[in-house]
Amino acid sequence: MSPHLSYDLAHGVAAIPQALGLLVIMAGIGHAAVADGRRHRFVRLSTAIGLGLEFFLAAGLIRLSTTRTFEALTVIVIIIGLRRLINFGLREAEKALA
Amino acid sequence: MSTGEQVEDAVKEALHVCIPIVEALGAVVILLGVAIGFVAYVAVVFGIRPVQFKVIRLRMGRFLALGLEFQLAADLLASAVSPTFEQIGQLAAIAAIRTLLNHFLEKEIEKEERETRAEVDACSIAQAVPPRVLPLAEAPHAA
Prior knowledge:
The complex is a heterodimer.
Chain A: H1 7-33, H2 38-64, H3 70-97
Chain B: H1 3-45, H2 53-81, H3 85-128
């Protein structure tokens, strides 16, 4: 018997941050659409994507407790890489706006 | 069955109860961070509370790092009941990668905290020091 959390429970719980992340990204797209200027639009969109990725990371970490595979770990590493990339892009955009 | 084996079995049973609890605690911490982050995001979007997105991400990142710490603890406990070398090896690899992830997350949080603090300091200095008004003779282009 595996001593870990139930697979269904962890995946069910992980669906919450995943759905919220999707909602944040969709709201960010809407928020960016009403922004004035290309740069502001870019900043709003990339911030929303960055925040959405944070929610996806949370979902991945919850799922990782039951899915102990290297694939699941790779997905999380990719998400962290994307976060870094978006952070870098945001910093550059902020510099350009300043 | 000897006393040693009985104690060993009791420890294994206790760990089978403890591990899912520690994992669930980690999931609860992560979910709490998610809820706090989402509420803060909604407050920003609807203009209820003007907080920088960076601050929301930092706050969430701290919860994620703490949740990961709980999961690492569960991995460590699980290593005590893993009977085969293969399972222990797999656990060790996953624990090592989790430790790395935690390290990177913490480094990122520290970096962003430093930047946010520097921005706040710069703003407070700009607000605290009133602009120096030069007398007419000192002012450039006065002549």
